[in-house]
Amino acid sequence: MQKDLETKFLLDFEQNQNIVHKICRMYTTNQDAHNDLFQEVVIQLWKNYSKFRGDSKFSTWMYRVALNTAISLYRKSTRSIKTQDIDDFTYKIKSSEYDDTEELQLKALYKAVHQLNDIDKALIYLYLEDKPYKEISETLGITQVNARVKMNRAKDKLKNILNP
Amino acid sequence: MDLDTYKKSWKNQPKETSTVSSVDIYKMSHSKSSSVVKWIFIIGLLEVAFWGGLNLLVPDDYMKVYTDFNLINFLNYYFILHYVVIALFLVLFYKNYTSVSAVENTKTLMNKILRVRKTVKYYVYYNLGGFVLVTIIVNSVMFSNPEILAKTMNPEKLNVDINTLLSVTLITQIVAILIMLLILWLFYKVTYGTLLKKLNKNYIELDNLEHLN
Fold first, then answer.
1. Which of A14, A17, A68, A103 is 20 to 30 A from B121 (CA-CA)?
2. pTM for the whole thing?
3. B25·A42 Cβ contact <8 A
4. In whole angstroms, what separates CA B70 from the centre of its chain?
């Protein structure tokens, strides 16, 4: 039984792991921290997997746990941002099929996101992933009205950083 | 530039090049968590052990003093009550700890983590309060019987002024309590301050939303 559950978890996780990578990239600025947060997310996902009933999609459940881990459970702060780290760190997302302009934009986006606070990072992630306000409010535990207000503020902050 | 342009780049971003294999995910999922809650739990357990064990460290000779003042029964009842309270705190602490789950919504999760921390805080308040209260009661009894106290404090019957002796005893006790409180306060500032700094900041950030309307 446990073996089956484990196999299913590994399969589910492997297929969706990019979600966790994206969240880790938003919340950390170097590879060590990325790996550290990634591992903590895996631990939390596995710890709760037996309770995952499939009421929601695995990917939805996964990003919730990942965001929660980054915001509340992960110990280290992302305060000290070294530009060097970010440049080294984001080189990995370079790909031959990926347009140069888009690559620069993506780098600029990550760099700007790193300057936001943890809650705004979550909001921006949810915006970039086109999540509806109902889901955003359920994920964060706030009302839809407040989610909208906060989202607009987070987007404004991000815009100001991107286009000073 | 519009944010939607960035969103397009976000959507088109290539998948992580260094994906983690099943074997590594398996290893990770079975490794030990180092989350904030885990640390609060460990420190909390150490505190329970520290305060619970403190009384066991008091040597029997020391208790003899209280026999002279007929305080031994009072202290024994207090210790029984004390251990019952510690047991209750342990149950509550563990219950709160196990209720923390990353599956909850962010706000509930934060609330639950802070509740684990609060249990420890109340436990410490209880211990400090109990400690100060018992010290006051014991001292009141002892100082209202200055003859016995003088005999106990000066068994060699050295030629010292009784009032000086009592004053020194009282001042020493007050200073010792103050130093102990200071050390504990610093300990909590450093441990919980470091552990909960980020969480508190994020909680305020999220909670502020509730007061917007």
1. A68
2. 0.81
3. yes
4. 32
